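INTERNAL AUDIT FORM
Audit reference: QA-55
Scope: verify that the stored structure record matches its stored sequence.
Auditor: D.O.
Record contents follow.
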Amino acid sequence: MPELPEVETVRIGLASLLPGRTVKTVDFDWPKSFPNAPADVETFLVGASVVEVGRRAKVLLIELSSKYSLVIHLKMTGQLVFRSDKQRFGAGHPNASLVGELPDKSTRVTLTFSDGSQLFFNDQRKFGWVRLLPTAEVVNLDFFKKVGPEPLSDDFDWRQMKERLVRRKNTTIKAALLDQTVIAGVGNIYADESLWGAKLHPSTLVKDVSSQQFHKLYDELVAILRLSIEKGGSSDRNYVNAEGKRGSYLTFARVFRREGKPCPRCGTTIIKTRVAGRGTHLCPHCQKLKG
């Protein structure tokens, strides 16, 4: 499942390519991937131009001149590939922007623009979707009503993060971080990395985390997310940016997927265990479970 930096990498790439392009035709092969009324598609998508590309949590938003938006959830295996005569962008598949004929057997939706360029939504497992909705109604989707604040927004600080996390005071700090209703977009990689940075054992109950530790955890999470976005996301296998470069964050990871290797802080061997139902990487010395 892509996390916030991976989806932000997609947004950045598409935001540099799509605005100003006008949709000429739409094709799809799987109704659940494109659950939209044909009349709405003809009226509000075909002939509309892209205004901007946004993101909320792990969901992409393509705003159109018709006052409608395409809401795109990549889910597990979703991919977006843009191709024109001069530009290529791919995310969600090895070398997606560089090789292969499209559409292929995993292509669910194809948008063809008036200049001949195309945007392909590929999804091998068919869990993702592209929905066309009035822009003003997007905020009323159940997902958007429930999802927590963006951790990188200017009006979100460590005190607000603490306030939201302590609502889950009897759960583990890792489970609380992974809860999308608490904070948006944080998944397994960045939970492990930020907890290591804050020297917190992932199984620590939220009620046992001090204010000082909450502050440190916030600082670590924000720094890690920003670094990952700068590096194009964490997936060296699945994501490439607008220039065709794979995400390189994992080359900077301190603990994730480093089991059996020395902790870069103390030298103790990093272990992998299970917390909140997820594979969890930690340093047993730096992140001792108190109590």
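Auditor finding: record pair retrieved intact. The chain has two domains: 4-146, 158-282.
Action required: none
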